[in-house]
Amino acid sequence: MASVNRFSMYAIFPCRQHDLISHLQVAGYDASNELYKAFLSQEMQYSCPIWGDEEGGVRGDLTGQRTYGDLERAQERKIGHILKKARLQPGHRLLEIGSGWGSLAIAAAEMGCTVDSLTLSVEQKTLAEERIKKAGFESQIRIHLMDYRNMLPSARVHHVSPSLVPTTRYIRLVS
Questions:
Q1: How would you list the strands of the sheet with 141-145, edge to edge?
Q2: Superfamily of domain 88-175
Q3: What is the pLDDT of residues 104-122, one digit of tens each?
Q4: How far is CA 174 from the centre of its chain?
Q5: Any idea what DSSP says for residue 89?
Q6: E-state strands within the chain
Q7: What three-state secondary structure class fits 122?
Q8: Which Pfam families does this chain map to (predicted)?
């Protein structure tokens, strides 16, 4: 991406400069699920976990205190924290941008929510749908293969967490 300047993107895609960018972004997301299984937790979360004191806190790896399964507990703690901060209640509908492999959507469905989740990755969509089916939440969770910028204008978001308002403004400005 760094070697492609903005002028050459306009020259290649004069009407749709997002096409090349989108292609390059999807290529990074669509690596084999086997690759990610080799080093991620069972939930297949690749964002930062929340380490508790029982795992040695954030320095547990440095002190040798962590044991097998600690990463899973820390990732579950993070998912729980996110859902608690979102103040989800049974019956709520959640829009998740960035499905990953479905862990957060499954946790929200366990709380009684319905989830529409967007992903750019065919690989992640396939495995997320397998995991959702295995968990028994096919009727509560839909994974959509699409960029969030392609959502229909009529797809209204009724509530955005106050902490995300600056982010939504930023997204509008850069899209």
A1: 93-97, 114-119, 141-145
A2: Vaccinia Virus protein VP39 (3.40.50.150)
A3: 999 999 999 999 999 988 9
A4: 20
A5: -
A6: 93-97, 114-119, 141-145
A7: helix
A8: CMAS (PF02353)
Phi and psi, residue 15, nearest 5°: -95, -25
CA dist., res. 89 & res. 131, Å (int): 22
Contact yes or no for 74/56 (Cβ under 8 A): no
Is 157's pLDDT higher than 50?
yes
Could you tell me the residue ranges of all domains in the chain? 88-175
| pTM of structure | 0.67
- In this structure, the dihedral spanned by the alpha carbons of residues 87, 92, 95 and 96, taken in order and rounded to 10 degrees, is 50
At 43-85, the pLDDT tens digits run 767 677 777 777 666 666 666 665 666 778 888 889 999 999 9
Closest CA to 95 of 113, 79, 116, 75: 116
B/e letters for 88-127, b = 16+ CB within 10 Å, e = fewer, are beeebebebeebbbbbbbbbbbeeebbbbbbbbbebbbeb
- Amino acid 64 reads G
